[in-house]
Specification:
nine-stranded antiparallel β-sheet; 31% helix
């Protein structure tokens, strides 16, 4: 009986619900030891596990829906990013603080691919794929290309900033009409970032 119980818990632990595992395991061991009806007890435990796991999965899916993935392409450039929305929130200066490194989107950090050599933000750039970080400001944004890929957010930026291959500053423009959803657009001579009341155009020639 104990063997079956541990097998259930281990399976659940592999699904990364650690908090629930540490909470239910000691309690369940007491129940298994003291309550005669083992099948009923284990059925309840399995039901609780399934309920928490389902709720956890639904929460992750909702987060992805709130910031869906998007791809912007054109002129030998491809950008893969996630699109957060305002949803009544103040964005720049609050949700996205001024003067701090931003993932330039949501979830995984935005990645940009140049299919051939060219210039980006006025500086030479070699063909390849890079992480696109930005540091928003009221009047100017700092643009950063980093060679480390597969980064979640910008939380680990300090550990990888030595891998920056480009740093440049571009002006930010105010737009009167609010832009609800963060958008990146590849144009012939610029990469445009738009959200809330801000538009940033990064010059490029690829």
């Amino acid at each position: 009986m104990y063997t079956h119980f541990y097998y259930i818990i281990i399976l659940y632990y592999k699904n990364e619900c650690c908090t629930f595992f540490y909470t239910i395991a000691p309690l369940s061991l007491i129940l298994v030891h003291k309550i005669p009806n083992m099948k009923k007890t284990l059925s309840i435990i399995m039901l609780l596990i399934a309920t928490v796991f389902t709720a956890n999965s639904q929460e992750k899916q909702e987060k992805k829906v709130l910031s869906p993935k998007a791809v912007a392409t054109g002129n030998n450039v491809e950008v893969r990013y996630s699109q957060p929305s305002m949803r009544g929130r103040k964005i720049f200066g609050e949700l996205v603080p001024y003067g701090q490194v931003w993932r330039t989107g949501a979830n995984e950090a935005t990645e940009i691919t140049f299919k051939k050599d060219g210039t980006f933000a006025g500086q030479p750039i070699q063909a390849g794929t890079y992480t696109l970080f930005t540091i928003p400001g009221q009047d100017n944004w700092e643009i950063i290309l980093n060679s480390k890929l597969g980064q979640w957010g910008s939380f680990g930026y300090e550990k990888v900033k030595e891998q920056n291959v480009l740093e440049a500053t571009v002006p930010a423009k105010h737009v009167h009409k609010a832009i609800e959803t963060f958008n990146i657009e590849v144009n012939k001579h610029s990469l445009d970032l738009e959200w809330e009341h801000t538009r940033v155009s990064i010059p490029m020639d690829i």
